[in-house]
Amino acid sequence: SRHFTQDMGKTHETLSVSSQHYCFVIDALMDYQRASKKDDYTYKLLVGQGPEGIQQVSDKTTELGVLFISDRSRKHMNRVFGDNHLEFHPLVNSKPYVFIHETHPLAKKSVLTLEELQPYPCIMYELDSDSPSVLQEEMLVPDFYPQKVTIVNGLYQSLMVMQKCQGYDLGTGFISESNGAQGVIKRPIKGFDDPITIGWVCQKAHTLSQPAERFIQLLQKYGRDLPEA
Asked: Which among 221, 90, 71 has a CA at the least distance from the CA of 140?
């Protein structure tokens, strides 16, 4: 039986990724899994906020983390990466968007203002209270204090609030129809086009596993295919 377990170790493939709420990361993982020829694997995708992802890569819960940095947070984030012995690799550039459902009263407009959004519920993702707010996706837009807030902890709940309650989601998140986000559209926010970089982190001087290397190639492919930022 010892021989059998050694054999299992050879064939068993693992890939573990933390990510902010990005559909393109889910798409890349689904693509990876569909193409897998392995009889024996464990693939893990943990979706959450930036600080959780940093913590998970730092303590080896996951090998890779996908998150964004903005011009405003870059200095702070570089310090956070340094403190956690992580290195950041850019993938794709974007800017802040509002995500709404195509049935939303503002859907016909090509650019939205913060004033227009105030009457509707702003969707925010739950974050550990001790994490610095500069990492919040919602903090892409400085000094914006929505009157109505719906706090969720997953993409599915976010989509429900968009469809049923005219909610909106501020973010860089790339939402795609392939994973259930039918009818979601994105609009630029007037006055906010600060560049944002989405990238991946791993531990410093870490030699990537083969699955991680192949997965990063898929992330780059899906990053290139994203609608022009």
From this structure: 71
